[in-house]
Write a structure and sequence with these properties.
- The structure is a single chain.
- This protein is mainly α and 102 residues long.
- The protein has a domain at 63-102.
- Helices cover 77% and strands 0% of the residues.
- It has helices at 2-22, 26-29, 32-54, 65-78, 83-99.
- The protein starts with a helix and ends with a helix.
């Protein structure tokens, strides 16, 4: 039963966060600092999630094939490759490093 309580509390919490966002006055949202923060926050969150997935096994930091794939994707991005090529290069490099025993 505790799982259902956790699901219910999480659902209510998500609804409360959405409601709080709707209740923010428009004047606050028009401030330049808030606009800049709103534009940069998704990028920061995505970078943090990517780093956590690439350099951790859930408990400890690791450096394995995922890091090599991430590095390949970074190089492809610096070379301004199309998105599908960026993803493909990360996949191929990660699979290659794993196949070689890394």
């Amino acid at each position: 039963m505790t799982v259902w309580i956790a699901i219910g509390v999480t659902a209510v919490g998500c609804y409360a966060v959405k409601l709080a966002g709707l209740l923010v006055p428009a004047g606050v949202l028009d401030r330049p600092v808030v606009r800049r923060l709103a534009a940069l926050l998704p990028v920061a969150l995505l970078a943090a999630l990517t780093a956590q997935q690439a350099f951790s096994d859930g408990r400890t930091p690791v450096l394995d094939a995922r890091a090599a794939g991430l590095a390949a994707a970074a190089v492809a991005l610096m070379l301004r490759a199309p998105f599908l090529l960026v993803v493909a290069s990360a996949v191929v490099v990660t699979a290659g490093v794993r196949a070689l025993g890394g």
